[in-house]
Amino acid sequence: MSEPTLHRSPAAGARAASRTLFLLAVLGVLAMTMNSPIAAWSPDDETTTTETAILAGGCFWGMEGLISDLDGVVDTEVGYAADGNDKKAEPAEAIRIEYDPERISYEDLLRFYFKMHDPTTNNRQGNDRGAEYRSAIFVLSDEQRQVAVQVRTDVDGSGFWKKPVVTEINDAGRFKEAADHHQDYLEKNPGGYTCHFVRGE
């Protein structure tokens, strides 16, 4: 007795061939991907998470000129920082700093900040006078506040400055970006006005 013959419809055969071609295509793409240097994973491929600091200490041109050069500072923007708790307080000329905490910490930023402006002059920095030129740290979290209080206390007690530190620590309110010609001012105008310099270097 002969074996029974199995008959496959033309449609079924076409579907099987289509599946085979699809699997071959997928395997081909996987093979190319595995051999591609673009697909090789590296720690450098991970997206860096940046953090933000807002500092005021006189004319924002000079502040930005020094802070933007720090290793770990990713971006800077000058503008006017409002006190989040005192709506009547005059906004201060300030700099908003985007930084990589893996390369520079918030504490290190503040310690540099206390050396590149005079935190002992009330509502004044160099020849600039008025509340908009006050020394102030605008904190964005409880953690930043704790660090700011500790660093201010350390600096005040260190004797680095001969007068008491008057730097305010305020909750950050609205930050209004300054006009474009203020951004990167000293980069655009080498030799332009500044009253900022690093002490103790």
Question: What's the short version?
Answer:
This protein has 201 residues and is of the alpha+beta class. Helices cover 33% and strands 22% of the residues. It has helices at residues 10-35, 60-67, 106-116, 142-158, 185-188, and strands spanning 51-57, 73-83, 92-99, 124-125, 128-129, 135-139, 168-177.
Describe this structure in words.
Helix content is 33%, strand content 22%. It has a 5-stranded mixed beta barrel with strand order 1-3-2-7-6. Helix 3 packs across helix 4 (142-158). It has 2 domains: 10-39; 51-188, Peptide Methionine Sulfoxide Reductase, Chain A, CATH 3.30.1060. With 201 residues, the chain is α+β, with helices and mostly antiparallel strands. The chain is built from 5 helices and 7 strands, in the order αβαββαβββαβα. The protein is globular and about 40 Å long.
